[in-house]
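Late entry, evening session. Most of the bench is empty. Finally got around to the prediction I had been postponing all week. Sequence below, unchanged from the version circulated by S.P.
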Amino acid sequence: MGGMHHFTYGWLTPLLSFAMACVGGALGLRCMVRALAATGTSRRNWLAMASLAIGSGIWTMHFVAMLGFSVSGSAIRYNVPLTVLSLLVAILVVGAGVFTAGYGRSRTRSVLLGGLGTGLGVAAMHYIGMAALRLHGDVGYSPLLVTLSVLIAVAAATAALWAALTVQGTSAAAGASLVMGVAVSGMHYTGMAAVSVRLAPGQAELQGATATEFIFPLAVVLGSFLFLTSAFVALSPTAQQRMESESAVRRLYDVETHGVELPSD
């Protein structure tokens, strides 16, 4: 059995990965709230942005956490196509849940199906990402802990979605993003606790890329995207603010045109 280390760099990778999960969750849930206040193409665009934010956020969380993963007696490489596939699957499966919640007629049904889709997206991304792992040996899993990790992802993602869509206010939004961060991080480390490695030392060179060659640069790019998009969403006006602004412009126009302020609708 190979000795595994999940915290090679101490608390740096767990805390940084948790922060990335919270940022992705906060951005995605905020986009969900904006989507429900919008209609037509605008709603679709907000939902697409939510899917992209949550999907890329959980992927970034997973692989930032994996930077701290090491196995005594073996180097670690990552299969690049499978790693990219894990990102695409995360965005698509989360997107299915997000769009279900965004267009559902029943709030309860939307939250339950949306949470299920988001949670399964987190789990699918994690285990496809783990399938990309290459080392000198065989990787096994505890079925019980794998099942528990999926349940944690679904339950916590559902709770985060419910909080974001039901409870109003900045503190509620912050709380929902923290719940989403706990969902992704809790799922990740429960899933990693399910892992066992049986070393088969070999001299053949491992195929794939190292974490610093491929994972780290992509995580930096996605992390930058999340932070910049968060700033954009935070600064962009809500639907209600746009309506109030348009109403104020109309009143100003009425005053300048007619000399009096006409009664508002």
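Two things to note before I forget:
Strands lie at 4-5, 70-71, 77-78, 133-134, 137-141, 195-199.
The chain has one domain: 4-236.
Will write this up properly tomorrow.
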